[in-house]
Amino acid sequence: MDVGALAFDVFGTVVDWRAGVAREAARLLGPDVDAHAFADAWRARYRPSMEEVRSGGRPFVPLDVLHRESLPEALAEVGAGPVPDDVAAELVLAWHRLDPWPDAVPGLTRLRRRFVLAPLSNGGVRLQVDLARRAGLPWDLVLGAEVVGRYKPDPEVYDAAARLLALPPSAVLVVAAHVDDLAAARARGLRTAYVHRPDEFGGTRVPPERDPGADLSVSSLEELAGALGC
């Protein structure tokens, strides 16, 4: 493909959000809380919390704010009581401390030899910087929700990616493990690559192995690098 840049979804595609949030929850909440159930409960509030912003019901706020607001309900769902403010702040920072999938850093390193790489995420700029520094993610720049004040799948997020990269949409390849994200990118003229991540939800919600609409469907970022000649 004649592309000049790759823009990546991050949560679930590049990093394992479930294991990371559960690890921090176990540390901060103790053994009486099912840490993985808590991670799932918190993640279940991810999209609904953004929908109020997408629909115009409230001004844009960074994802850290939405995570903090949805935290009490997630805790209550797993039978945990309210936590002190300092513990709540540490839990929100769990999303800044996620580990990459084993293939992510090797695959991104190979891809960066030929392409400009950027996260195209609903996570804020500081969150993406923290993840990159912790995990060694070799981004060239940060794109996404906080940059344009919109949450995916708002068309402006994808339009802005091409505009800020000074490339036509067809020269930007969006890489994600979520078919709806890729469909929204294709609707704006961007190219797409699907990455199968069967363990994103601990194997309980297994996604399709391929996205029939995507230009490429792969099982790892290293496979993507090979498919793109890196």
From TrEMBL:
Keywords for this entry? Hydrolase
Q: InterPro entries from the xrefs?
A: 2-HAD, HAD-like_sf, HAD-SF_hydro_IA, HAD_sf, PGP-like_dom2, S-2-haloacid_dehalogenase
Decide whether keyword Hydrolase is in the record. yes
Q: What PANTHER family is this protein classified in?
A: HALOACID DEHALOGENASE, TYPE II (AFU_ORTHOLOGUE AFUA_2G07750)-RELATED, HYDROLASE, HALOACID DELAHOGENASE-RELATED
> NCBIfam families in the record, alphabetically?
HAD-SF-IA-v2, HAD_type_II
Q: What family is reported?
A: Belongs to the HAD-like hydrolase superfamily. S-2-haloalkanoic acid dehalogenase family.
Could you identify this protein by its name? Haloacid dehalogenase type II
Instruction: Tell me which species this is from.
Output: Geodermatophilus arenarius
